[in-house]
Fold this protein.
Amino acid sequence: MLFRSVPAGSSTETYVAIRAEIDNWRWAGVPIFLRHGKRMPRKFTEVKVQFRVPPLQLFNRPDGLSDEEFREKLRDGSLCQIRPNVLTLAIQPREAIRLSFGVKRPGSAMVMAPAELAFDYREFFGVQTAPAYERLLQDALQGDATLFVHADEIEASWRFADAYRLAWDSAEAPPIAEYAAGSWGPEGADDLFHGCEGGWSQGRD
């Protein structure tokens, strides 16, 4: 991906997509997806917590499947009939909290429809919050470290990032994937999701 004033032979990374896991009992088996990129269609920062879908599915069951076939398709991820509940913490450009979930449609049919509960800071308070760096500088001038991360968190973050840097610089590293400016990034990033895990967020206006 090339920008004005950037040398044609530059290999500086502008996009990263990571599937990570935490090796302890509390987070065992929970994938954590991280993505950051430049020159994408929309600029936003958010955290999405996607809840697991139970293997027992009472709604939106397709016709013509035996019980055994139905359970097998749910286990292997080839059947994603139910959307998982998702908690979204929108940070930029608008601060908001959204919870999306499924509700049964009225009537006798066992069919679910998506619904959402939402809280928007700007709509509720009628004012726009200060930009991130403005708040950061104000807190620094006032000596308020409430929203600052601790030194051990920073060190742990750099250890995590440095491990990827070392892997990218190794002789065994695959070539850097390219993507067009204005796109959502390399297609290979979508392969990090398995089965019914969903996909990358595209934010919202």
About this structure: The longest strand covers residues 96-104.
